[in-house]
Every structure is written in C-alpha cells, then in structure tokens.
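Structure ticket #2291
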Amino acid sequence: MIFVIVILILLILGLSRKYILRLEPAGMFSLWWMFSSGMAVVLNHYIIQRYTGTIFILFCVLAFTLGTRLCDMTQSGESVEGENVLSFRKERATPLLVVLILASMFNPLYSLYLHGFSFTSLFNMALLLHMNSEMSVDRYSGADTYSVLNQFFLVFSYLSPVIGGFCYRMVGRWTKILCIVTVIPGIFVALTQAMKMGMIVGFILWFAGYVVCSFSYRLSLRVKFRYFFFIILGFFLFLAILFLSLVFRTGELSTRALTDISQKFVTYALGHHHCFDLWYSSYELSEHTYGAMTFMGVSNLLGITNRVSGIYTEFTQIGTNGFYGISNVYTIFRPLIEDFGEPLTVAILFVFGFCSDKARKSINRRSATCFCQTFLVAVYIYVLWSFVASIYAYTSILTMFAFAYFVFLFLQKQEPSTSTKPAAK
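Resolution: structure written out below.
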C-alpha cells in the first residue's frame, strides 16, 4: 500500500505543480495532503494506520486537481478587450478596518464578562491560567455561556482577517499595520480562552483574502527572498502561541503538563490523518445524510442534527509503541462520506475543483467579480481547514461569507472600459 501512496503522491505532484507555484486552491489542497500523507508513512512506527483511508484521501485530492485541470483546458481565463475595469476604493479601507477590528474584539472581551472575569485578569498569570482552564471546561462540557449579541459579533472575528488580507497590497504603509492587526483578535482568543480554532482560521482567512486580492488585481504572488526570514519567524511565533494556548488550557505549569502538551501538539498537528484512516477502515453507514454533516450548523438549527463542540464525540486512540495519542478530528472526508458516500464524495470534489478554477478565471475576466471573490475565499478556507472538519459546519463562518460579499462591493468599483477598438479600414 505504501507503493500505491507514493505513486499517487507523485501523480498529484505532477498534475498540481503549477497550481502550487501560483498558490491556487488545487495547489494548496494538494500540497497539504501530499505532506500529510508522506508524514503518515514516516510516522507509521508511532501512529496506528491502515493506509486505506490515506489512499482514499489521495484519490479525492487527485479528483479536485483533475477538476481544476479540466477547467484550465476548457475555460478561457484571459482578459478580453473592452472588459470592465475594477478599481479599489482606497479611501474606504482605513475606516472600514478600524470598525472591523473593534467589532471583532467585542466577542472575546464580552465572553470574559459573561464568564465572570474582569479585564484585570489578563495581567495576572494565575488568573489567566484559571480563566483558560475554566472556559475550556465549560465549552467542552456544554455549559458555555452564549448570547445572541456575542454570536453576532463572532462573525466579525472571521470577517476582519479576510478584509485585512485583501486590503494589504492595496493600501499605504500605515494602513498595512491595521491589516496585520486584524489577526490579533484570534490570537487574543487563543491566549485567553484556549481556543485554537479562532487563531488558525484567522490566519487562513487572512491568507485567502491576500491571494484573492492578488488574483483580482493581477499582482505577482512571488515571495521575495528577503522576506523568508520574516515568514519563518512568523511561523515559529505562530507555533509558540499555539503551544502557549495548550499550556494555558491545562491551568498549570509543570514538567508533567509540558510533556503531555508536547504529545498533544503532535497529535493535533498530524493525528487527523490517522484518525480518519482508522475510522475509514471500519465504518458502517446505514443511510446517507445528504449535506447535514458538511453543513452541520444549518442542520443543527433545523433540528436535523445535534452539533457539539469538536463536531465528533468519538475519540480514537491513534498512538502506538510508546506514543500516546487520542483524537476526535476526522477531516472533511468523513462528513462528505457520511453525506454522500465514497463515489459521490470523489465526484463532488472534482466539481469543486472545476468551480474553484472557474471562479478564479471569472475574476480575471471581471465577470461576477465580488461573488467569485467571496466564493474563492470560501474555497480556500474549506481546503486549508480540510485537515480538521468541514468549515461549513459553523453558521458564523457561513454568515461571514454573506457579509464579505457586501464588503467587497463596498471596497471596489467596477465600470465599463472606456477603451474602444480602432475603426476598421
């Protein structure tokens, strides 16, 4: 089976190489799962696996890539003469970013208030550890405190980094600082409420906004060599904040706690692959749910399903040979299989790959630009969050997409081109 995995990885690499270099959805999807599948083989001594799930995942990635390739071959992405002109309303960016940052900070600060903590608790390490531990226990026990107001402002915690990333290349130096600040609310949540999702999703959404803007205004996506140091530094800072978030969640600082957290860190980083692999090798379905699991937030509101924190309550022991690992993270592929079965899952991802490339080409041709920008952001967050679960299971994320569409309309102006063809002789 390892031979089959290697062949599939090489095939996907050959088909997706140019999409990886251009940071397109198919490239990002392929890159992550080629890396994850490779690590699954490398770590086979420490983490249990059957390999059948890995092979299915690679077939799904291959289908997504082939869908993109089909669109590439059949759909023109070149601009046409007389196309609409897209312009960025630079004067609107700064006040909008300020409003979004303030709105996105309301949710975490109000959550502290709802749990009975004051702002001064942030400056006391003992209280900070206690706050993280208590809020984490409340969240996973179902005793968390919510309000309609809090849920509404949660949308801005996700919208803010999208717009920050989108505006970054279009504004001046000082406004760029505001664009970077849009990821701070997610970091604040990770360090005060032991919630990793908000921070990770925030960085992904910022990246999605940045890339979509680059596609929209035909800006180069090449990374200059002198920025590599800052990228590496930022990556390690990101990992350090995640690690601190796990430390704060335990509510204690000790050698034993740090050892346990180190193993959890590895499990959170790579365990999803093996968790799905073990589930896939033994699952039995009596009937399909036709979208209820992929869009669990909506089906939960309709009373079709009951969404709990973490999406799935079944924990799987994935560690072996001295490594302790337990996880309930099953990737996007489990809900898709539960919804539609294996053949349709592959077909759906093929169509999704086709549509993602079509949206990118439509942006380049200035056709339904704001809608396609929003759709492309939705694609990026789905494929880059695919190692955890369906991001569409969260109603706040779905609501954010609707808000993002209107913000894109507010920030941009599209007018018919004034250029005309020369008269025929």
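Closing remark: Residues 420-425 have pLDDT under 50 and may be disordered.
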